[in-house]
Write a structure and sequence with these properties.
This is SCO family protein. The chain is an alpha+beta fold and 218 residues long. The chain is 33% helix and 26% strand. The longest helix has 26 residues.
Length: 218
């Protein structure tokens, strides 16, 4: 009598029956891989719809040095932090305080972990009046923003490297004037890449700004 063993017999032609749960595991793995492939394809095919104007491809953000609001030497280096960079000045009557207010509200909407990786930096375009002490008093109204003073002509070079401009206007005296300046906010990722910029008119859309920041942080 020929006996059929519990293991596959060589040359017997007996079919090996895989346990049902093994087949189920294979099926689940296959579905997971398929869905993962679909997700990756969708991400590549349909880029994230950023609200701001995107730098494509991202550019390396120019580094710069100056003095912060505490009078300490300051060198801009993201070091893993996403940065909202704004060129403005403390005597600005409207756009600057509103921009910094919106950016402070944006930061408050982030999780504590995200807040630790997000910073707001104000580069003054009025180094004549914006001393570190003046900057410190000003940025204290806007949470954890950092104010930076850069002397001329270095300031002009830094602004130009970002595509920003500024010029004195409505001059009524040596210390009585306004400064017309670029109103964009530059979003720089943790690797020091310029990812996008927001126009001043977009800053009130906090939901959209938050989505942009969180996507850049991924």
């Amino acid at each position: 009598m020929t006996q059929v063993n519990g293991s596959p017999a060589e040359g017997s032609g007996a079919a090996f029956q895989r346990p049902w749960y093994v087949s189920l595991i294979f099926a689940l793995v296959a579905v997971t891989l398929l869905l993962g492939g679909v997700w990756v394809y969708a991400r590549l095919k349909t880029p994230f719809p950023f609200f701001g104007t995107v730098y494509a491809p991202p550019l390396t953000a120019p580094l710069f040095s100056g003095t912060d609001q505490d009078g300490h030497a300051y060198t801009f280096a993201p070091q893993g932090k996403t940065t909202a960079l704004f060129f403005g000045f403390t005597h600005c009557p409207n756009i600057c305080p509103l921009s910094l207010t919106y950016l402070a509200k944006l930061r408050a909407r982030l999780t504590s972990e995200e807040q630790a990786r997000f910073q707001v930096v104000l580069v003054s375009v009025d180094p004549q009046r914006d001393t570190p002490a003046v900057l410190k008093d000003y940025v204290s109204f806007f949470g954890t923003a950092t104010g930076v003073r850069i002397p001329e002509p270095q300031l002009a070079q830094v602004a130009r490297s970002y595509g920003a401009g500024y010029t004195k206007a409505d001059i009524k005296g040596p210390e009585n004037y306004q400064v017309n300046h670029t109103t964009a906010t530059y979003l720089i990722d943790g690797e020091g890449k310029l990812r996008l910029l927001w126009d001043y008119t977009q800053l009130s859309q906090l939901d959209r700004l938050q989505a942009d920041v969180q996507e850049v942080m991924r």
